[in-house]
UniProtKB/TrEMBL annotation, chain A:
The keyword Plastid does not apply. Is involved in the conjugation of reduced glutathione to a wide number of exogenous and endogenous hydrophobic electrophiles. It catalyses: RX + glutathione = an S-substituted glutathione + a halide anion + H(+). It is found in: Cytoplasm, Cytosol. One of its GO terms (cellular component) is cytosol. The keyword Cytoplasm applies. Keywords: Cytoplasm, Detoxification, Transferase. This is Glutathione S-transferase.
TrEMBL record, chain B:
One of its GO terms (biological process) is glutathione metabolic process. Belongs to the GST superfamily. Tau family. Keywords: Cytoplasm, Detoxification, Transferase. Pfam families: GST_C_2, GST_N. This is Glutathione S-transferase. InterPro entries: Glutathione-S-Trfase_C-like, Glutathione-S-Trfase_C_sf, Glutathione_S-Trfase, Glutathione_S-Trfase_N, GST_C_Tau, Omega/Tau-like, Thioredoxin-like_sf. It comes from Hibiscus trionum (Flower of an hour). Is involved in the conjugation of reduced glutathione to a wide number of exogenous and endogenous hydrophobic electrophiles.
Length: 234, 218
């Protein structure tokens, strides 16, 4: 097993929400690490192809001689290795299962529907995609009410697994709001999430890795130009 | 107080089989409640309001959804008997990675094979590649979990009950391309916990023939 002192590197891109998860988790644990930026549009580096031969995707966590792939698996690995630092996952099994459930929902359903807003052809398709995203946000607003136990985060007093899993998408959510002209997080439907989003983005573990909305919006326009309708899929 | 463990089930679902297999491996007594998937009842809708799908595990009145999340929950609650995940964080991350790989590939590719549309040939090729990759990962170990059944075995074994259906509908042999993987299947089936939890592949094929339309086969 790699010792806690072994070198830690994250292979990724500044714009990927999935890469952000790994960096936030390391920041929570105060683990010094090197961020190796891939320029995916210029072709994948040999390091990436060697460390993630199956999927060839970022993020990859390199810890000593170990490589770990898939963002949520990386977050769980970080939580387990640096176990004396603040916990990321809840300790109770049912709460852990609930956090994992919502993280899977975000990855399998919610984020794809948000990406679909940008790619939708025709007003009907766009409205349908927006509707799905808004429905998901209402569910998450309810879940926040249940699991935050009065604290500012899904994890309670501190950022936890679901905060990381969801919060990493806030940059792209803001870009989507800007480009669509719709406030997806708002005081009417999602007052708690609105407050949570602000708290999450201001947190010390997050603020230096969350990209600025303007920069992300420019990036979105650039890649849309290169690959019609695509938002980065990492 | 005795644990109350209920599984909302559908016998042919590989996802539900994962849950039953995990419980069976750990020797946990549970009540199986088969669900009508074409006419979903209030129990299922209440237990899984977001996805309205089986399997659901209801443990002392609290529901857990999504098959691999349920299996992890089972492993964490009944932690002292037949552990499914390794205790070392790196080994765990590898097991989780391969279970995730299975999750992303096998069901969709298998479905594209048995639905038998224009993309069947491509799906067959990709399915074989996927199974070969898993066979390489298995290597010389008796099980993916090492000396005993582990998380990755539980993730993949249920899909092997559908192999006969994939082969018949796609007219190919998985044994030919992946003999070591088939040897692993046979080794697992020798275990009581596995044969208790998994139906015979021919029963799955009969189900497929009966319900072709409902399964999306045109």
């Amino acid at each position: 097993m790699a010792s806690n002192d072994a070198e830690v590197k994250v292979l990724g891109t500044w714009s990927s929400p999935f890469v952000m998860r790994a960096r936030i988790a390391l920041n929570i644990k105060s683990v010094n690490h090197e961020f190796l930026q891939e320029r995916l549009w210029e072709g994948k580096s040999q390091l990436l192809l060697n460390s993630n031969p199956v999927h060839k995707k970022v993020p990859v966590l390199i810890h000593g001689h170990h490589t770990i792939c898939e963002s949520l698996i990386i977050v769980q690995y970080i939580d387990e290795v640096w176990s004396s630092a603040p916990s990321i996952l809840p300790s109770e099994p049912h709460e852990r299962a609930t956090a994992r459930f919502w993280a899977a929902y975000l990855d399998d359903k919610w984020f794809p529907s948000m990406r679909a807003i940008g790619m939708a052809e025709g007003e009907d398709a766009r409205r349908a995609a927006i509707g799905q995203v808004e429905e998901g946000l209402v569910l998450l607003e309810e879940e926040f009410g249940e699991c935050s136990k009065g604290g500012p985060f899904f994890g309670g007093d501190r950022i936890g697994y679901l905060d990381i899993a969801f919060g990493c998408f806030l940059g792209w959510l803001r870009v989507t709001e800007k480009m669509s002209g719709i406030r997806l997080l708002n005081e009417t439907n999602t007052p708690r999430l609105l407050k949570w989003a602000h708290g999450f983005c201001s947190d010390d573990a997050v603020k230096d890795v969350m990209p600025e909305t303007e920069k992300l919006a420019e990036f979105a326009k650039m890649i849309k130009g290169r690959v019609k309708g695509a938002t980065p899929r990492t | 107080m005795a644990d109350e463990v209920v599984v909302l089930d559908f016998w042919a679902s590989p996802f539900a089989m994962r849950v039953k297999l995990a419980l069976s491996e750990k020797g946990i007594t549970y009540e199986c409640k088969p669900q009508d998937l074409l006419n979903k009842g209030p129990l299922l809708l209440q237990a899984n309001p977001v996805h309205k799908k089986i399997p659901v595990l209801i443990h002392n009145g609290r529901s857990i959804c999504e098959s691999l999340i349920i299996v992890r929950y089972i492993d964490e609650v009944w932690t002292h008997v037949s552990p499914l995940l390794p205790s070392d964080p790196y080994q765990r991350s590898q097991a989780l990675f391969w279970a995730d790989y299975i999750e992303k590939q096998v069901y969709d590719l298998g479905k594209r094979v048995y639905v038998a549309q224009e993309d069947q040939a491509e799906a067959k090729e990709k399915l074989i590649q996927c199974l070969k990759t898993l066979e390489t990962e298995l290597g010389d170990k008796p099980y993916f979990g090492g000396d005993g059944i582990g998380f990755v075995d539980v993730a993949l074994l249920p899909f092997t009950t559908w192999f006969y259906t994939y082969e018949r509908s796609g007219n190919f042999s998985i044994q030919e391309s992946c003999p070591k993987l088939i040897a692993w299947v046979e080794r697992c089936r020798q275990k009581q916990s596995v044969s208790d939890a998994l139906p015979h592949p021919h029963k799955i094929y009969d189900f497929y023939l009966l319900f072709k339309e409902a399964l999306g086969v045109k």
